[in-house]
Amino acid sequence: MTSSPHVQQHARLLKLASTASVITSVILIIAKLFAWWVSGSMSMMATVIDSMLDAFASLINMVAIYIALKPADEDHHFGHGKAEQLAALAQSAFIAGSAIFLILHAFGDLSGDDHIENEQVAMVVMAFSIVCTLILLSIQNYVIRQTNSVAIKADEMHYRMDLITNISVILALALASRGYREADSIFAILIGIYMLYSVRKVGWEAIQMLMDRALPEEDLERLEKTILSIAGVVGVHNLRTRISGTVPIIQFHLDIPGEQSVRHAHDVGEHVKEAILEWMPDADVTFHMDPV
Questions:
Q1: CATH T-level assignment (fold) for domain 5-210
Q2: This model's pTM is above 0.85
C-alpha cells in the first residue's frame, strides 16, 4: 500500500530534522572541545558535556525516527510509531543525568583556584556555536509545526538549552576575564538546574503517550462535532483515541438509522472517515456501525 503524499512529506521532514541534528552536534562538539582546551573554563566544559549528550541523543533520535517510519507489519499492526516516544524518554533521562553530574562537578569547582585563559578565543567559538544552533532550531521548529513529532520536540529542547548555555558561557567568560572567577562555576550550576527544569515536560509527555493517553479534550470535542455533522449519523459512542508516534489512532461506534441499506450505511461511514482525515490527514480511523 502506497503512503499518501502528506505522510511521505512528514517522513522527509522527520529525516531532515534528525539528520541535521546529528551533523550539527558533531560540529559543535569539535568546536567546543577546542574552546575548552584553550580556556579551561568550567562553564565551557558544561556546554561540551551538553553537546556530547546532544550528539548521542540525536543519534538515538535519528535511529528511532527511521524505525518509527517503518510501515506496519505482521508483528506490529499499528506500525512502529512509539519508537519516537521511547527516544524522547531516553533523551530526557540522559539530560537529567548529565545535569546532575554537571551541578555536582560545578559545586566542587567553586572552591578551586583554576584560572581561565584565552577567553576571547572561547567566546568566538561560542558565537559560532550560537549561529549553528539557531540554524538547526529554525529547521526543527518548522518540522515540529508540520508534524508535531514528540521526538523532534525533545531534540529541539536539547538545542534550545544549548543556545541558552552558549549565551551563558559567553557571559561567564566575560565576567571571569574581569576577575569574577566564581561566575564560571555559578553559571554552570544554573545551566544544570535549567536542564532539570526543562526536561520534565518532554519526559512526562513521552510517558503519557507510551501509556496511550487520549487526545486533548479540545480535539475530542472537535472530533465528535465532525462526526455528528455528517448527514445520516444519529450519534457516536465508545470514542477512544491515542497517539502512536505522530499518528492519531481513533476508534469509535457510529450510530446510524437501522432502516438504512448496507450500501447507504457504508457511504455514511466513508463520509465520516473523509471528514476526519480532512482535519487529521495522518489519523488511523476505525469504527463500528450500530443500527438504532
A1: Alpha-lytic protease prodomain-like (1.20.1510)
A2: no
